[in-house]
Amino acid sequence: MSGVAVVLFAFVCYLFGFFIYSKYLARSVFSLDDSKPTPAQEFNDGVDFVPTNRWILLGHHFTSITGAGPIVGPAIAVIWGWVPAILWVVLGAVFIGAVHDFSALVTSIRHRARSIGSILGDYAGERARVLFLLLILALAILVNAVFAYIIALLFTKFPSSVLPAWVIIPLAIAFGWGVYRLRINFLPLTLFALAVLYLSVYLGTQFPIKIDPVANALGLDPIMLWILILFTYTFFASSLPVWLLLQPRDFLNGLQLITLLALIYLGIFVANPSISAPAFNPDPEGAPPLFPFLFITIACGALSGFHALVSSGTTSKQLAKESDARTVGYLGFLGESSLAVAVVIACTAGLTLFSADRFQEIYSSWASIKKSAVPAVVEGGGNLIASLGVPLDLAQTLIATLIVLFAATTMDTSVRIQRYILNELGYIYSVKPLKSPWIASFIAVLSSMALVLAREGGKGGLIFWPVFGASNQLLAGLALIVAYLYLRKIQKPTWPIFLPLIFVLAITTVATFLNTMNNALKGDYLLAVVSGLILILEMAIIFESIRAVRRERDEVPEGF
């Protein structure tokens, strides 16, 4: 099969999704109305609530949701065959993932930009709200701990990525100040910022930065020193006004991703590589069964519950008008899906562009690809870009830098979301210290650092990472429950939410149950207990939601 044919299939589906299906959702299901003031307009405080140009907000949302997930997940999942991976990435995105992100965003702006966990309490009661918020906090801590380790590891493995990863911070601050305070036209400012950013990528290849001498002088492992630096940075970044750092940084990262994606797709069309990997491989050595584990291995790119936290955490507080939700929420997810498609082709066709046996070497077993997912993407994607005449080392540096920057932006957003949730809990339960952005940020960073230090070398988050996939998709199912309950309240069609909801909860339940049993059989009782608790939590929230449907079946809230 030609890689070009797969790309054409994906983009035909995306065109249908955005121009037909998302219009139906916007008009007939959620009835978007620009005459209604958004929370960004109503509560504009210049810090968290900031009405934002939809294209800049799209950049923020896009890069916040597009961390390492749509890179690592698809790179691993093609071991089951490229056909199921592509079908889940493309069709899952159009009918489930993008719907999930869009519905979480709209539901949040219709509830004063509150988090999806807090909103659940309005429909399913206080007990469901507390359980959901605790789950969100736990997942945010896990994401922060693991992403800090991954970024630090990438900094040590790809020192050429260090310079551009840190140059973008002062560049983003200058961009935000120029747009919002000096009122400079953002187009020339954007072109200048991108030029500086790509110059830093080139300089990074010429002057790679290694922190080892400083770490040795301090008696620290280089990875641990990077982790400390990253958490110090995110402490301040999570409390600064969104327009000053978070928003412009994500916008510039989004443009960089679009540029890099254009290069990869151009490489696909120029090289026209054949996909030599198996179309179906249902029983790879050492791998769990394709169903349900394909659907939790590929999360970002097809469906990810973490996106509901972004949609209802940072994005909903910046949406200038309701109609922008379609571009930001739905199109933003399709952009992430297009990255996952590029990853699938890079790993199944790009890897074999210059070496026919390379796929089999890397994908010989489940254990092999679990260790080699990121290098496989860097190598395969680099080969595709190199087919355009770009030096291979520069092409690989571009991809490695992209992975670092996107992991960093996701970590930035995750710490800020954690701070928002702690703020919400402070207001709900009248805990004054939690209402302070700085105290909440400190608690967010401290709790994540505590998990990091739970294992030597900063690997504490990896202890619980095996349960993240199922937990993340559980979060997506619960976010869809909130949207479903809201649509029932306002008496709108619910089937576009209900059908994905049933599918997601089914795969989540089966996967979590299997994880619980497998961990118990392996003697890993800690993970078995954690998986079991997550399964009980899911059942409790579903039960509370069913009670809410029965209790309020015929009620319509005022103001809708």
Q: How would you describe what is shown here?
A:
Helices cover 74% and strands 0% of the residues. The chain has 560 residues and is mainly α. The protein has one domain. Helix 5 (82-109) runs antiparallel to helix 15, helix 9 packs across helix 18 and helix 13 packs across helix 22 (495-521). The mean pLDDT is 88.
Feature tags:
single chain; 560 residues; mainly alpha; globular; 23 helices
Give the gist of this structure:
With 560 residues, the chain is mainly alpha-helical. 74% of the residues lie in helices and 0% in strands. The chain has one domain (3-109, 144-454, 476-495).
Secondary-structure element order, N to C: HHHHHHHHHHHHHHHHHHHHHHH
Helix coverage percent: over 70%
Low-confidence stretches: none
Total number of strands: 0
Please give the count of helices: 23
Radius of gyration: 22 Å
Largest sheet: none
What does the average pLDDT come to?
88
Overall structural domain count: 1
- The coarse silhouette is globular
Proportion in β-strands: under 5%
Distance between the termini: 50 Å
The structural class is mainly alpha
How does the SSE layout of this entry go?
Blueprint: H1 3-29, H2 39-42, H3 54-65, H4 69-77, H5 82-109, H6 116-124, H7 126-157, H8 162-180, H9 186-206, H10 212-218, H11 222-237, H12 246-271, H13 290-297, H14 306-313, H15 324-350, H16 358-362, H17 366-386, H18 392-428, H19 432-435, H20 437-452, H21 468-489, H22 495-521, H23 525-551
